[in-house]
Target: Lipoprotein
Amino acid sequence: MKTSWRSASLVASAAAVLALTTACGQESGSQSASQNVGATAPAGGYGGTGLGTNAGTGTGTGAGAAAGEQNAGAQAAPAGTLSVASNAELGKVVTDGGGRTLYRFDQDTAEPPKTNCEGDCATAWPPVPADDAAAGEGIDESLLGEVTRPDGTKQLTIGGWPAYRYAKDVNPGDTKGQGVGGTWYALAPDGKKAALKDLPGLSTRDDPELGEIVVDKNGHTVYRFTKDSQWPMKTACTGACLDKWPVVAPVDAKDTKGIDLQGSTPNRGYVVFDRPDGIEQQTIDCIPIYTFAGDKEPGDTNGQGVGGTWFAIRSDGKPVGAPAQ
Model:
């Protein structure tokens, strides 16, 4: 064969930022230094049970033998005739002959094609063999190629990008690997990353269990920490806490849909929090907002109720399911 995701920024003058944060009661230099993370992530953690917490980095360790045994067939399966599947959240993605989603890894390169996923990484993300790969409907044959892996085997490339399966995708059409570690993405037919389509920086969705909740531009659930303070605005999540609960960066008000921009104080609820660690964080009704590292897929709500202190947030800033104060 021939070898062949947007960060939104919020620009404001120092005076404007000071005025807004003062309206939320922010007191410079007085934020809490507490690092209560709210207990531990749910079973399985960010990397998933059996695949190691660094499965998405290419350098992870501890890929489970059980996971490997259960997915031995998927790892050894040939590519077969590739096709294009329509995913409600990701649009068009490439699948192999068995209907399994194919992925690409940000730490690889396409020009020239090169794989950087070996060892345990290749157990969690089995390389797709190039030998029998064929272009089916919707696949441009000229984009298919191969790269020689360090072990001498030939791996399929699409648009130059080495192609992989994800060991935790059990059924055809699964896309559990999307966004894992911030480096793994389903392959679009042109070799680019498949990505959630047309989502604003912040919007809402209807969760079958939690009702209306806020999600970010990647479709990931947004949370609040009950140990944070609204009046005055302070954070109790610093240091190591942020590894599990990354802050939501500033999002322009124009890049939102369904979010209450007024808040308890009209026209002043949707502001940027100037954290004590220098990080700028978006707030809703002066409440700092976060995502959860344990949410691997759009729609996950694994952070809900963690430690009895972390809860999904509604469009008006209220926590979902939190005990009455």
The CA atoms of residues 38 and 307 lie 4 Å apart. Residues 65-186 form one domain.
